[in-house]
Amino acid sequence: MATFVPANERRALSPHLPLGDRREARFYGKDILSVSQFDRDDLEYIFGVAKEMRAMVERVGTFDLLKGKILANLFYEPSTRTSSSFTSAMERLGGSVIPINEVRYSSVAKGESLPDTVRTLECYADVIVLRHPEVGASAEAARYARKPIINAGDGIGEHPTQALLDLFTIVEELGRVDGLTVTMLGDLKYGRTVHSLARLLSLYDVQLNYVSPDILRMPIELVEELKSRGVPQAEYAGLEGALGETDVLYVTRVQKERFDDLGDYERLKGAYVITPETLSAAKEQMVVMHPLPRVGEISMDVDQDPRAAYFRQMEYGLYVRMALLAMVLGKA
Ligand code: CP
Q: Does residue 80 line the site of ligand 1, with CB under 6 A?
């Protein structure tokens, strides 16, 4: 059995591993903070491991790949999917979880800092999944932690594991990414999932369309970043102009918790609602995705349409997160 080596020491050891181990070595002991750390080969590797995870879950349900390993799930913001899918992922791999889903019941409520909180949890766990309301919080935590930090959403910044599962969903549902037109709809200003997904899609030959109210447009810095990489992008105020050419319709919720003026939220929350009538003008092979939770922007009448992929998308997330845990703990 391999001796456990802390993350900071493993970083130094990785270049000396045999060539055949390099792809795994790129992740072993590493933090997952941003989609910017991945290239296309990484994504192919992650999705290959995720498919193996799915096959194992379907065959045996739970197995002992990470037996003896412990995950600390540290959530400063509410979560259903990310928190519970990481818990399920760790338990299906035979490991166990320290759940801190309400930091108000932890010593954070007494004023403990983020660096001290992660330095505490790494005494008890092998990997820490962190959701935090501030942009850059996971990167800050990673500066102090010896164990791998996985960013589960940092304010309006990034949500890299969501983007990975989103891309895996596209690959599984449509069989390819190159050549697709992806239309992102809703709150593109505050939606961290679209920020991460747009960056990840920039590794492929895609057309990106953005449909949002004027004050919730995709941040100009991100649009410029993708433009400099040659990604064709177009902005629309209404879905009609983009829907007919769309292969992936990625719908997002207007993020109430990010608004300073709740009057703006009330005015914008119903700006777009996807109904069966909307889909009547869409391609037969299109998929509708949503990171969820939804709060009215996709009518429940759409759920039975085969193009509605958002519930399957959640399940894909389990396999991707199992793959990521196995990889950062050196067992993929
Ligand atoms: N998609 C997503 O991050 O969902 P939760 O907020 O429920 O984790």
A: yes
Strand partners, 235: 210
Q: How far is CA 46 from CA 26, 27, 49, 159, 218, in A?
A: 11, 10, 5, 16, 28
Structure tokens at 302: 């759409």
191 CB within 6 A, ligand 1: no
Q: Residue of the nearest CA to atom 5 in ligand 1?
A: 79
**320 neighbors 168 (Cβ within 8 angstroms):** yes
Distance spanning both ends of the chain, measured CA to CA: 15
Put simply, whether the predicted model's pTM sits higher than 0.70 gets the answer yes
Residue pair 256/294 in contact by the 8 Å Cβ criterion: no
Residue 36 Rama label (left phi>0; alpha psi -120 to 50; beta): alpha
- Name the token pair of 272: 């777009």
Ligand 1 binding pocket mutation candidate from 76, 77, 82 (most atoms within 8 A of CB): 82
Neighbouring residues of 148: CB distance < 8 A, sequence distance ≥ 6: 7, 29, 30, 31, 32, 126, 127, 128, 328, 329
Helix ranges, 38-94 (H): 40-60, 81-92
Q: What is the rounded distance in angstroms from the CA atom of residue 110 to the CA atom of residue 120?
A: 14
Q: Using CB atoms within 10 A of its CB, is residue 71 exposed (0-12), middle (13-18) or buried (19+)?
A: buried
Q: How far, in Å, from the CA of 81 to the mean position of ligand 1?
A: 5
pLDDT tens readout for residues 218-271:
999 999 999 999 999 999 999 999 999 999 999 999 977 777 788 887 888 878
Q: Which atom of ligand 1 is nearest to the CA of 131?
A: 8
Segment 141-160 mean pLDDT: 96
Q: Tell me what the mean pLDDT of segment 155-168 comes to.
A: 96
Q: Tens of pLDDT along 273-302? A: 999 999 999 999 999 999 999 999 999 999
